[in-house]
Amino acid sequence: MNITRRNFFKMAIGAGLLSSFGKAHAATDEKILVVYFSRTGDEYRVGNISTGNTSIVAEYIAEKTGGDTFEIKPVKDYPFDYNECTQIASQEKATKARPEFVGSVDVSPYDIIFVGYPIWWGDMPQIIYTFLESYEFGGKKIIPFCTHGGSGLSGTEQRFAIACPSAQILKGFAVLGTTAQKNRSETESIVVDNLNRLGLL
Q1: 3-state class of 165 per DSSP?
Q2: DSSP letter (8 states) at residue 44
């Protein structure tokens, strides 16, 4: 992130562009959790606010549904440099690595779990597999969502079905990373449209 981009987000906060819309309640009695991994190291934060693409989408989902959130934070941050990050992501995919993440969340009280991630090398980041393999999702509804550069969900819904065979995998949705980063109103609209499709608004 360069200084111009950082200053943009500082100004955005000052202008209220990154403020909460206020928590709503989903049109269901089911309890909702929004889990996400985003490229959100220190360079992607302004104060306590993440400016990573996937986190932006996750925050809209939580705000619209009243859901709780859990951010998957790697024990070891990925490099800020894009090329270095993609090299590590490629190595992790090739070796089916399972990077550790910080903390934990009790998924047992939740009926619906959104799981969000960027698309890296045509797949979910390997840390998402770490998360999925760390918990029991029997009987739960899982809704994938992602940010991407043009590939959409890239077949990741099917990978959820393999990783979580006892869960019900619902049709997910994708948001272009550039849209999440640069067009908040369109991002919000995409989230609302999909929550309506899912019967959650």
Answers
A1: coil
A2: G
- The CA distance from 191 to 173, in Å, is 9
The CATH architecture assigned to 23-197 reads 3-Layer(aba) Sandwich (3.40)
User: Rounded to an integer, what distance in angstroms lies between the CA atom of residue 51 and that of residue 111?
Assistant: 28
Quick one: CA torsion of 148, 150, 162, 190, rounded to 10 degrees?
Answer: 60
What does the alpha-carbon distance between residue 126 and residue 130 come to, in Å, rounded to a whole number? 7
What is the rounded CA–CA span in Å between residue 67 and residue 97? 30
The model's pLDDT over 137-192, given as tens digits with 9 standing for 90+, comes to 999 999 999 999 999 999 999 999 999 999 999 999 999 999 998 999 999 999 99
**193, containing H or E segment:** helix 184-197
Q: What's the pLDDT tens digit per position in 2-30? A: 434 344 434 443 333 333 334 566 788 99
pLDDT given for residue 17 in this prediction: 35
Q: How do residues 35-66 score in pLDDT, each as one tens digit?
A: 999 986 445 555 555 578 999 999 999 999 99
Length of the chain: 201
What gap in Å lies between CA 146 and CA 137, rounded to an integer?
Answer: 20
d(CA 71, CA 195): 20
Query: CA 113, 107, 94: angle at the middle one, nearest 5?
Result: 70
The type of residue at 90 is S
Q: Count the alpha carbons within 13 Å of 152 in the hemisphere toward its beta carbon.
A: 6
